[in-house]
Design brief:
This protein is an alpha+beta fold and 186 residues long. It has a domain of 114 residues: Alpha-D-Glucose-1,6-Bisphosphate, Chain A, domain 4.
């Protein structure tokens, strides 16, 4: 009997830790990248040029630039096609917003893309949104006439499309951060 009480007590102590570990989290992409022999100022200029090249429209990005601390933060919008699973599988263009941060120091930089949120569809003016993309396999919302299974398939498709887009952006950032910027001196 005493052994059973010990096991029960152990289970009570461990259960909260298991529940904490199962919490859904926002999908986030982050990495520290080393760039040998490049100072903070040069890395900052490269990051700023990447932002300017990739977010040409004021609608696509808002940003805060702090050269002294080597930080660029902003939020952007992108469109990516993905499947909606209702009666049939149909491709629509989803509109996503996201936050990004780039931190630069001598010889390295760190990027963070997070708070990726599906905010709607280009093809219609409904308020249907999947919300923030998380690690959950279960879609947190429902659309009229969609079964839970179809919503979960749509959720997975949206997450895959957003992941592909963000990974492309990360690829262009890495290329930009490895290129020498042209001098503005005459």
């Amino acid at each position: 009997m005493e052994e059973m009480n010990k096991r029960f007590l152990m289970l009570l102590l461990i259960a909260p830790l298991i529940c904490i570990g199962q919490k859904d989290s926002l999908i986030t992409f982050s990495e520290v990248v080393k760039v040998d022999s490049v100072n903070q100022n040069e890395l900052f200029n490269r990051a700023r040029l990447w932002v300017n090249d990739n977010f040409r429209s004021g609608k696509d990005v808002s940003q805060i630039i702090d050269k002294e601390s080597g930080t660029i933060t902003g939020n952007g919008v992108f469109k990516e096609r993905f499947y909606l699973y209702q009666m049939i599988k149909t491709k629509f263009t989803g509109i996503f917003s996201f936050d990004f941060k780039i931190f630069v120091k001598d010889g390295k930089y760190k990027y963070v893309f997070t708070s990726i949120k599906h905010i709607g569809f280009e093809e219609n003016n409904t308020n249907e949104s999947l919300g923030y993309l998380t690690s959950s396999e279960v879609c947190p919302v429902s659309f009229p006439l969609f079964s839970k299974n179809k919503m979960n398939q749509t959720w997975a498709s949206a997450k895959m499309a957003a992941t592909i887009n963000v990974e492309k952006q990360i690829g262009t950032l890495k290329m930009a951060m490895s290129k020498v910027t042209e001098s503005t001196n005459f």
